[in-house]
Amino acid sequence: MSGGMEASPAGGAAPDYLARLNAEQREAVESLDGPLLVLAGAGTGKTRVLTTRFAHLLMTQRAFPGQVLSVTFTNKAAREMRERVSAILGRPAEGLWLGTFHALCARMLRRHAELVGLTSGFTILDTDDQMRLLKQVMDAAGIDLKRWPAQGLMAQVQRWKDRGIAPDRVTPAEDTDYAGGRARALYAAYQSRLRDLNCADFGDLMLHMVEILRGHPEVLADWHRRFRYILVDEYQDTNLVQYLWLRLLAQGHRNICCVGDDDQSIYSWRGAEIENILRFEKDFPNARVVRLESNYRSTKPILGAASGLIAHNSGRLGKTLRTGRNDADGDKVRVVSLWDSEEEARMVGERIEAAQRSGHKLAEIAILVRAGFQTRAFEERLITLGVPYRVVGGLKFYERAEIRDAMAYLRVLAQPADDLAFERIVNTPKRGLGDTAMRKMHEIARAERIPLTMAAAKLVQGGGLAGKAKMALSELLHGFARWREGLPREGHVVVAATLLDESGYTDMWKHDKSPEAPGRLDNLKEFIRALGEFETLAGFLEHVALVMETDENSNGDRLSLMTLHAAKGLEFDMVFLPGWEEGLFPHSRAMEEGGEKGLEEERRLAYVGLTRARKQAIVSAAANRRIYGNWSSSIPSRFLDELPAEHVQREGSTGMARNRVVDMPSVFTGAGGLMARKPRTIEAGAWEVQARPAHAEPLQVGDRVFHKKFGYGTVTSVDDNRVDVDFEKSDPKRVMDSFLERA
Ligand code: ATP
Ligand code: MG
């Protein structure tokens, strides 16, 4: 932290930590009694106000550390607060109630578990277990899971929980027509099943605690006695159940201080309700509202660019934001146009190296992406350059579950004797192969000293399996034979994509309604794209093995790579914001699902991104992205046009693509169109690894086709070179067009 005579208060006798605040911040810190709302733009010191307020509470002996409840959004803020408090105490702070909503609630719930029919040792279920349990409950109720996928109910249950609605509070108006109006009953059955098993799902942590505080005045009074002060960061992203919990706890002393910024509300898809800000003033009449208007984080151009962008949103609460920094005239925001995502990764890599050479620490540099799959290109580049990095709030690309699964499929494809890989995928997606089937397979393998794949084949032939499991396993083994045979003809990229589809793996995620599923599918597409960068399957597999190996165990200086969502509250000297292209950012899914509201949330996300930067923000857009070995062109994000010109310096690098035999589409000319990203195939030059095994004439809807495995059918839709076919003797499927013949 900097020296801090930025705004010395009159009199000068204030403790050092107060001297480091401006007048409004000081007001927010020193107004200790009664409800307080700090509503202010990015980088105005809201989090600093919260940490200082905690310190001030202790210094003025208003509270002991354990009497302050603080809800923070990032681990960094929690750590800072803990350090600050420890420094004041002169010893490590213990027994602090400091953390995320869920962590705090879990801790409280352990003390009162019996009030909701659990014991204090209850298990917190992960999503997989939740889903399994929900399916059991639905099965027991005789629900046709094909007609009513469990994911739909799961999402509904989550929505109810986010809004603090236990089964007995679901009103007819809240009910849905899911499963013929049985959603509420199934929800009740699921909750009762959880109780029997002494389990709570994630949403239960909040829901149960709210129910307990509502229904047990003596418990509530107890917590009121304990928590004299409540501090809440990133208040704009609380959902209803979190709000209810806070309101209940704050009723006692009414010393609740919430800080937030309506322009940074980016979690509506997780149930966050911006209305909670408006509700605050109603529920806590006479609440003091403090506005902070000086931004201490970013240079003038960065702030100007971010403010200009967010001004395009309607329905804002409205705030003034000016720079509070002395070095206000910093670098303009760079907007760099590039040929493709690889070149984008190269540009970022070069600038990072240059920054390192001029003495910047990696810890002060971040790459913030809109979608998880985007990290792959940067990770590969950073590894090549030997730049240590961490993926904050997530896994490195090749460590993600779906990528490990896909890798396992390819390993079996390349090397049928890879038992570990085969074991990973043989029952993923579920093929009805339980423990018994697996044991039999292993017994055969051990007895005959053969690989598992061969043992599996023997198991199928020998009649050791029956019914669906036998069919499914047999189909998988035949699949591998077919895909392997297709390799020389179709090439590894096409075969890999086909394999993931035909094995049912892609469908597994398509049918998954969890919020992560679409991101996983995007990762799989990116995986295929990565594959296309290699001449052979073996080359790719070796590359990934080596990449996985370079897991530096150093705690040294590292660059941060993360999604924009994970970057909230953080700051860096230099921030890269790649992939500002229509469809990717703003993300097409957000707009399809949320319309104009979705677009505004995307814009807030862009605002969050820009305002993470202290000194330099580098935004970029690639004109092309490779998809399944083909090119699709992109339109630059409309957000680029919304950045005020006076704060932006535009740079192009089309020259770098000169030696390529590809026609540069003029996507950067008619910029700013409102069209969604539209894929378009471009004939690529000889440097492209995977030539497209094209049909002379592209297939069209209505064409009758023949597929070696699925037989005759009719094309129902065409998505680049992937085609949906309504087969006559088999379920409708999506297949690669190269596997189809015109019939
Ligand atoms: P965000 O909306 O992104 O969460 P914030 O409002 O919480 O931002 P902080 O992270 O608290 O802002 O502060 C932004 C930066 O400005 C930090 O580096 C902080 O140390 C610095 N800062 C805050 N107040 C002052 C001040 N009065 N003088 C100097 N620097 C300050
Ligand atoms: Mg903050």
UniProtKB/TrEMBL annotation:
GO-annotated biological processes: recombinational repair
Residues the entry annotates as binding ATP: 40-47
Domain UvrD-like helicase C-terminal: residue ranges: 300-569
Superkingdom of the source species: Bacteria
Keyword DNA-binding: yes
Annotated Pfam families: UvrD-helicase, UvrD_C
Catalytic activity of the protein: Couples ATP hydrolysis with the unwinding of duplex DNA by translocating in the 3'-5' direction; ATP + H2O = ADP + phosphate + H(+)
Keywords for this protein: ATP-binding, DNA-binding, Helicase, Hydrolase, Isomerase, Nucleotide-binding
GO terms for MF: 3'-5' DNA helicase activity; ATP binding; ATP hydrolysis activity; DNA binding
GO cellular component: cytosol; DNA helicase complex
Ranges for domain UvrD-like helicase ATP-binding: 19-299
Residues forming coiled coils: none
InterPro entries referenced in this protein's UniProt entry, alphabetically: DExx_box_DNA_helicase_dom_sf, DNA_helicase_UvrD-like_C, DNA_helicase_UvrD/REP, P-loop_NTPase, UvrD-like_ATP-bd
Enzyme nomenclature, EC number: 5.6.2.4
Family that this chain belongs to: Belongs to the helicase family. UvrD subfamily.
Protein role: Has both ATPase and helicase activities. Unwinds DNA duplexes with 3' to 5' polarity with respect to the bound strand and initiates unwinding most effectively when a single-stranded region is present. Involved in the post-incision events of nucleotide excision repair and methyl-directed mismatch repair.
PANTHER family: ATP-DEPENDENT DNA HELICASE SRS2, UVRD / RECB / PCRA DNA HELICASE FAMILY MEMBER
Identification of the protein by name: DNA 3'-5' helicase
Source species: Dankookia rubra
Taxonomic placement: Bacteria, Pseudomonadati, Pseudomonadota, Alphaproteobacteria, Acetobacterales
